[in-house]
From TrEMBL:
This is Thiamine pyrophosphokinase. It comes from Serendipita vermifera MAFF 305830. It holds the Pfam family TPK_catalytic. It is an enzyme of class 2 (transferase). The keyword Disulfide bond does not apply. Belongs to the thiamine pyrophosphokinase family.
Length: 255
């Protein structure tokens, strides 16, 4: 059975406290900004963590409105999607600053998926530099169909991309594939609650250590037991699962 080691470097206390002065993380990190609400604090943390950024269609409106007069200091590398949500004034503003705005009219992919396609194309052009770790801003709040799409797409990505995290002002989460997982945490700006969610599978058998309520080879399914509203009890978490699950942790970012 495979084993994976995880860290969440963009939420380390030193980076959060540095705020807008933080430098990009080592390695290749990309940020996808979706069309959902988010705070300036979270946006700054994730923006500064990444070297390459793409706005998904209406995500451009969110950033433009959030930043006000500062928007010119936060220019993405790309805006893409079917462009049915971006306002004309926002598109004109970014175009005037030489930001690439690319319409992808495919009906077989969402704007979220089109952003990933752009990252894949960038990786194909620069294979010597390796793959990107990806942070998705938004995707786990708002409309339930969009939330399920996010969960479904990351489930599919788990075998071909090592690190894809989703962050909102409430949570950070990602998919744990079948096997053992060792998660090292800086809990300074994490909340207490966490969840192990058997979404998209019939059932899994779970074992874990480092939580307030741990299981040993316990069956978990949406039709049975689900470990929601569990508590983080240690900085080192161990999870063993026989099928892929979603792992989520609550955030408590400073105002």
């Amino acid at each position: 059975m495979n084993s994976r080691h995880w860290r969440v470097p963009f939420l380390q206390a030193s980076r959060v406290l540095e705020g807008r002065n933080a430098h990009p993380l080592s390695g290749r990190w990309a940020l996808i900004v979706l069309n959902q609400p988010f705070s300036r604090k979270l946006f700054d943390i994730l923006w500064n963590a990444c070297e390459w950024r793409v706005f998904a269609d209406g995500g451009s409106n969110r950033v433009r409105d959030l930043l006000g007069n500062e928007w010119k200091s936060y220019l993405p590398d790309l805006i893409t999607g079917d462009l049915d949500s971006i306002r004309s004034d926002v598109q004109q503003d970014y175009t005037s600053m030489d930001v690439r705005v690319v319409r992808d009219g495919s009906l077989d992919a969402t704007d979220f998926m089109k952003c990933f396609d752009a990252i894949k194309e960038l990786e194909r052009r620069t294979p010597q530099e390796g793959d990107y770790s990806v942070i998705v801003l938004g995707g786990l709040s708002g409309r339930i169909d969009q939330t399920v799409h996010t969960m479904s797409y990351l489930y599919k990505l788990r075998r071909i991309r090592a690190h894809v995290f989703v962050a909102t002002d409430d949570d950070v989460g990602w998919v744990l594939d079948e096997g053992e997982h060792y998660i090292s945490l800086d809990r300074t700006f994490l909340g207490q609650t966490c969840g192990l969610l058997p979404v998209g599978i019939e059932s899994t058998r779970l074992s874990m250590k480092g939580l307030q309520w741990n299981w040993t080879d316990h069956e978990s399914s949406l039709d049975g037991d689900v470990s929601t509203s569990n508590w983080l009890a240690a900085d080192e978490i161990w999870i063993k699962t026989t099928r892929p699950i979603w792992w989520t942790m609550s955030l408590k970012l400073p105002i």
